[in-house]
Amino acid sequence: MKDFPAEFDDIRPYTDAEIPAAMQRIAQSEAFPLLASWVYPDKPLDEVREMVKGFTTAHDFQLTVMRRVNEQVIARSITQMTTSGLENLSTEERYVFVSNHRDIMLDASLLQLMIVDAGHETTEITFGANLMSHPTVIDVGKSNKMFRVERGGNMRDFYRSSLHLSRYIRYDITERHESVWIAQRNGRTKDGSDRTDQGIIKMFAMSKPEDKIAALAELHIVPTTISYEWEPCDLLKAIELYQSRTAPYVKKPGEDLNSILTGIVAPKGRVHLAFGKPITRDDLLAFNDLPTTQYHREVANLLDQRIIAGYRLTPNNYIAHDMRYGQQRYRDHYSDSDRAAFVAHLDAAMARAQVDEPDVLRDIFLTIYAAPVDSHTAFQ
Fold this sequence. Notes:
Largest sheet: 7 strands, mixed
Strand order of the largest sheet: 1-7-6-2-5-3-4
Structural class: alpha/beta
Strand content: 5-15%
CATH superfamily of one domain: Glycerol-3-phosphate (1)-acyltransferase
Radius of gyration: 21 Å
Number of strands: 7
Distance between the termini: 42 Å
C-alpha cells in the first residue's frame, strides 16, 4: 500500500510506523482504566495494557480492540443486528460509503464489523475536527483509520479544506486502494429526515473538474443506510432542536463526548445496515446534459432515493407517526404492547427534560421517529 504524500499530513490517519507510539500513549492515558474495564471487563487491567502496548499496526488495533468494542455494543445494547445488500459489493473493489448519520460513532463503527465479517477490508472514516479535542480521542481515532474533516471557517478556508478533502478521498480510493466512510451531510441528522447535502457531491467532484462523470464514477459511491429501533440520543437531539428554535445552538463543553457515550450504552433495540447499489457511470450519464449545479443536485437526489429505500422501519416509527398526527393510519404495523413500550419510553424521556413548553418538546421527539415514515412514503 502506498504511503501518504506529505500534503495530507494534516488530516490523514496514523501510519503503521506511528502506531506503536500511539499505543504507548493510549495505554498510559488517564482514561485507559475506564476504557479497558468496559471493553475487557473480565481481564486484569495490566493484561489489557500490555496487550495494547504490543500492537504495531492499525490492522492489529482494529481487528482486536475495535472489533471487541463493536461486539460489546451489540451484546449490551442491541437486540438484533442485521444487514442487507452485501451482494452489491465486491471484496476486490474499494468504495466511498455515503451514509445517513444518526450516531457520532456507531454508524461507521458497526459498518466496519459487518463488512469485515463479509470478507472486506475496513474503511477509513471521516472524523470531525470538532471531536479532536482530547489527545486520547485523537490517538484512538487516528489509530482506527479516521481522518480529519474541517468544518466552518470563511468561504476561502471552506473552499480550500473542501478541495483538500476531495483530493485526499480520491487518492485513498484510486491510489491507496482504501475504502472511505462519510456521512451524507455535516453532522448527525437530528430531526429524523435524512437528506444528502449536494455540497458533499460538489466536494467529491472538485478534485477532477475536467470530467464530472469520471469524478464521481471513480469513487464507487455506495448509498448506505443505518436504521435504529431506538434512536441514539433521541432526547438529547430533541432538546437541541427545542433550544434551536429561538437562537443558534451552542454546544456545551464535553457535549459531544456525552453523546458518544450515550450512543454506546443506551438500548438501541434492532439495528439494520443496508448497502444500496453503487452509483455507476450509467447512472451518472443520465444527468450528463444538466448544468453542473443541477447535476450535483440530481446525484444527491439519487443517493437519497437509495438511502431511504434501505430503511428498516420499526413499529416505533409508525407509532410515533400515528401519535403525532392523531390518527390510526399505520395501526396494522404495531401491536398494543409495541405502543405501550414506546409510550413508556416517551413518557420517561419527557419526565427527564426540564423545559417550559413540554408539548413542543414532545412533538419534536415524535417527529424524530415519525419523519422516516414520511421520507419512505415520499420516495416510493
